[in-house]
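Cont'd.
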Amino acid sequence: METDSLPRREREKARQRRELLDAALELFSEKGYHHVSMNEIAQKSEFAVGTLYKFFKSKEELYKTLMTDLANRFHSELLEALEAKEDEIEKLQNWVRVGGEIFRTNASAIRLFLTEAQGAKFNLDAKFNSELFEIHKSKIESLKAVFASGIQKGRFIKIADPTLLAVALDSITRASLFLWLDSPDQYPYPENTEEILNILFKALIDPTAAFRLF
Amino acid sequence: METDSLPRREREKARQRRELLDAALELFSEKGYHHVSMNEIAQKSEFAVGTLYKFFKSKEELYKTLMTDLANRFHSELLEALEAKEDEIEKLQNWVRVGGEIFRTNASAIRLFLTEAQGAKFNLDAKFNSELFEIHKSKIESLKAVFASGIQKGRFIKIADPTLLAVALDSITRASLFLWLDSPDQYPYPENTEEILNILFKALIDPTAAFRLF
DNA sequence: CCAAAAAATGAATATTAATTCAAATTTTAT
DNA sequence: ATAAAATTTGAATTAATATTCATTTTTTGG
């Protein structure tokens, strides 16, 4: 019995490692990298500090491992979502659905990716973070008002909730500019300005064929 | 002469303060909050460390001031962009345009908001950051392939470059899920799944009226 | 059951960097 | 020109916490 693949000791070690990573993830998600001490991680994972160094040679390595593992796991789940379907429209639907599932089931991990991020940056303190987040929300509100009034006047067709439209335009703009910032050669800038709005303005699928979806 | 608004001393102090903030911004943008020491900031701004504490009572306050100022400045520029136009479509066009300008002219500041963010988190080291960024790019590539093939097969209309479409879907999904994560009550989750794709699939403006734009 | 080997422990050490403050310098007023 | 006041300086202090390693505990094989 117990031939489950790895020698008992190895298996035990792997389990411990996972426990350690889980504890660390939870703490990092809550308080951010720099606000979590090795002693805290030791306490939460029920190891002694010294033992942590059996698994990772430094706090930084522990953190990097955590992040890279997560990124790879999420990435491969999304990839599977695309491969699971034949038709392009279904692929996209599946992508969004799986993305949502990942989000639901990994909320705290996602926070580690995003809470500190998303314009708010790492957790100096909650008050400050929410202050910045309020500015962001207020920006979304102004944009939302434009969509709402456009819809009301019949200038726009209501293809989605105004808030979602605002979030969409804001995030597309930011993401594409960021990509340009990262690789100005690969992703040219000026053309995008017009293209970005086309994503909202124009229909990706032929409206006359749209019924095929439902 | 020299009646430029504030007493000489006050004016001088304000100028110094701005110089200090500029130096700090540059350093933070390059290396991230926790990797910049007060001594570095002092050196770059050509003050002594002690003097920094004349302006801000702590490193944290210095940083917060920087971020809040930036956020407010960007926010009000974007707000003006909306208010400057009468028509909703022009408002949106102006928003995207001004957003791009802010990006161009504040690349390093934006990095402070985004580089550490955007899934990559704060700068432990460049190698690690780019490792995570590669995973992100690869995710975009998979999604891009779906759009490209959909367009090629005639399943999709080419309303924008496949890369931009991929970036758009990815960022809308993430942003809207994040909003839900932040305020589950205000922004319900499940409905969005379908709505998100509508942003791409459907046209916000009546195609028969589209010519009015050009 | 026993002793050698392996693993775990956490108090002590080392490091890094934020903050302070007595001394030096500059500015202002007479 | 002089001295009081204000400002600036940066070496020394303090604080926080990552890492080490001598000691203790647990496991293993005979």
